[in-house]
Write a structure and sequence with these properties.
By secondary structure, the protein is mostly helical. It has eleven helices and no strands. Helix 8 crosses helix 9 and helix 9 packs antiparallel against helix 10. 32% of the residues are buried.
């Protein structure tokens, strides 16, 4: 039974990375490939119907850990308390950046929430990658099955590393690059014209599909 739950949790994490990964990537490239209000609104409309639904996989994974592996849930959520709080705030800021952008018709308001959306997406990608790096590297469990690590120490290899060190930061940067490419390809599939051309320059891959009918029927929740 534990093996079955392990497979289910792994599938949930994989689904979250694949499905919400292009949302994070779209946020990362939002300020790079979109140069004006209409182009940034188009990127938000491309992820509008799916971005909040994709995060359900992360919630389901946390619930499955609590139900099937309570000891793992307790030790990991206590040892990674500070980075988990940072991730939760970044997830909230990302949602705020998407939802509140269209509430006021003002260029300064749009620019502020575009920045919030992009920076929270970028930092989420790095922190998720750093989390994978910590899992691969391992954490120092004590005899009670718990551990504590500072957010960072001196970034050097040693017996007392922090959650962020040279290895986990590198895995975070790798995740950032991977999700940027993932999101860029998704935006290329959903847009055309200048945005499509800029993402070609960004990732060096050309996508020539035309999604004009889809773009006309996109959810309008991101419209000002």
């Amino acid at each position: 039974m534990e093996t079955l739950w392990f497979i289910l949790v792994a599938l949930m994490l994989t689904a979250y990375v694949v499905l919400d990964g292009f949302d994070l990537g779209a946020g990362i490239i939002n300020l790079l490939v979109a140069r004006n209000h209409d182009e940034r609104r188009l990127i938000l409309r491309a992820i509008g119907p799916v971005w909040d639904g994709n995060e359900v996989w992360l919630i389901a994974c946390g619930g499955a850990l609590f139900f099937a592996f309570p000891f793992l849930y307790a030790s990991s959520f206590s040892g990674f308390y500070l980075p988990l709080m940072i991730v939760l705030w970044l997830l909230m800021l990302r949602g705020v950046g998407v939802e509140l952008r269209s509430h006021v018709s003002d260029p300064l308001w749009w620019s502020f929430f575009d920045f919030v959306f992009s920076m929270s997406s970028l930092l989420l990608a790095i922190f998720f990658g750093a989390a994978i790096g910590n899992v691969v590297r391992g954490v120092p469990l004590n005899s009670d099955g718990y551990f504590f690590e500072p957010l960072w120490t001196n970034f050097r290899v040693g017996t007392n590393p922090g959650i962020l060190d040279w290895y986990t930061v590198l895995t975070g940067l790798l995740a950032l690059v991977t999700l940027t490419v993932h999101g860029s390809h998704y935006i290329a599939l959903k847009t055309e014209g200048s945005i499509n051309a800029r993402q070609v320059w960004l990732v060096g891959a050309r996508v020539t599909y035309s999604f004009e009918p889809y773009r006309d029927s996109l959810c309008a929740t991101a419209d000002p």
